[in-house]
Amino acid sequence: NIERISGLDGLPLTELALDNNKIKFIENLEKVPCLAKLALGSNEISSLDGLRKCEQLKYLDVASNQIEAVREVEYVQNLPLLCSLVLTGNPVAPVVIPEDPSLPNFYRLRVLVRLQGLTSLDGKLATAEEKTKAMNLHGGDNSDVLNRARVFKKVFPDMEYSNTLPCFVETEPSCTTNEQKVSFEASKAVFGATVEAKRRALNTTHFADGPGGS
Prior knowledge:
Helix content: 25-40%
Distance between the termini: 72 Å
Shape: elongated
Strand order of the largest sheet: 1-2-3-4-5-6
CATH architecture of the largest domain: Alpha-Beta Horseshoe
């Protein structure tokens, strides 16, 4: 079974199928510039990092892997041609059960608000209506929250608008935020070590120049 993606440098591949292997990391695919269709189902992948430079990618199947966070899709958010994504069988994608109004599931909307270019998610059509629901759920400039306020003001000019449909609060940290946090923490550690070294140097100098020094 294949454990790493390698040996593809410069190959004019447009499709690549590596299902049912033991791949843990998506790597070296920036060296396959024409790749449009990628199948990595049934591996051990936990992150979509490694796909950010696959600008020709249209179809991505990472079903039955170990992806736990919806925000992993932010790694493919800027791929201009991506229109089909399969995440079924991952911890992030819920098992389909009869709808229960008491258990709202925002999985699809959370994916679609980030990947507005998708026409298919998990083999199901991603409709314009569903994408609108996704935008409304999360609020922001592209939702209809501002329009609601404008309409309310026209009808009730003397009353203050109150949004009774609060936006969904995302609990997962952004992938980019995590990277920035790691970088910040590393910089902070270096800065702290530098300050401590200077402090010790000053203390040593002060001790040498003190009453017992020369």
